[in-house]
Amino acid sequence: MIIATFEKNDDKFSSYSLSGHAGFAEPGKDIVCAAVSALYTTTTNALTDYVELTELKKLNGENGIYIQTYSDVTEALIKSFYDGLIEIEKQYPENVKVEVIR
User: Fold this and answer.
1) Chain mean pLDDT for the chain
2) For the whole model, what pTM was predicted?
3) Pick the CATH number of 2-70+79-101 from 3.40.50.720, 1.10.8.60, 3.30.70.1490, 3.90.1150.10
4) What is the spatial distance between Cα 12 and Cα 18, in angstroms, rounded to a whole number?
5) Calpha distance 66→60 (Å, rounded)
6) What phi, psi does 2 have (nearest 5°)?
7) Which sign does the torsion angle of CA 77, 79, 85, 90 carry?
8) What pLDDT is attached to residue 14?
9) Of 54, 56, 49, residue with least CA distance to 75
10) Residue 32 CB partners (closer than 8 Å, separation 6+)
11) Residue 8's CB: how many other CB atoms inside 10 A?
């Protein structure tokens, strides 16, 4: 199962990380993994390419991102990622879990 962990401070997203494997299908044919990976890569690339003051680092031993400075842009990007993962979790609850730490 893929576990997506989002952290919120003052009701704003401050970090996210992914761990695990979807296990929906064999490697190379796992559409759940592909969907989650596409969302993660797109969001992380947008944050690191277009938004200043973000830092990629290991969170809980997994790859993730920590937001050093909040902005409407960072919030919108992470909210979009979160919303996309929620939709995948609804369709594949055995393969994806989304959690929010406050």
Assistant:
1) 87
2) 0.88
3) 3.30.70.1490
4) 18
5) 12
6) -85, 130
7) negative
8) 87
9) 54
10) 2, 22, 24, 25, 88, 92, 95, 96
11) 14
